[in-house]
Amino acid sequence: MNENSIIDLHSDHYFMGEALRLAMKASEAGEVPVGAVVVRAGRIIARAYNQVELLKDATAHAEMLALTQAQQSVGDWRLTDCRIYVTKEPCAMCAGAIVHTRLETVLFGASDLKAGAAGGALNLLQFPTFNHRCPVVAGLRGEEARQLLKSFFAERRNGDKDAGDGPGT
Q1: Catalytic option among 63, 104, 144, 155
Q2: Sign of the C-alpha dihedral, residues 76, 81, 87, 88?
Q3: 89: annotated active-site residue
Q4: What is the distance in angstroms between the CA of the first residue and the CA of the last residue of the chain?
């Protein structure tokens, strides 16, 4: 085995790969393909994908579900020593929850210039008057995440003229 074939199970690339696998699961379930994992001390402690349609809940974004799982795993609402890997830039709701849970770092794939709240349309994660500011790493495996979203919405537009990329994205 040479050094090029070794997979680093603690790398950002690996963890985003896990989020991308979850995003594919979301897509297969008819959900906007967004996946998220929360990592603490090099271990995934929470994993989720969008379930807005399944749960009939506008707040069931991948990030929100993963944060809830992570808080249960840690036994506290504070996630100061955790990182979240999410395939799409968090929206304002998710960014607000990330700030409130005091995550250490947010790493995301695809930017969202229309509604992203981690630097796309606005940046709530580093808002100067908030009590916590969260470092952001944008574009991690971004092309893969963009392609998942692009394919999902292209299928929706071709198969259902009423489908769009509105809430839940």
Answers
A1: 63
A2: positive
A3: no
A4: 41
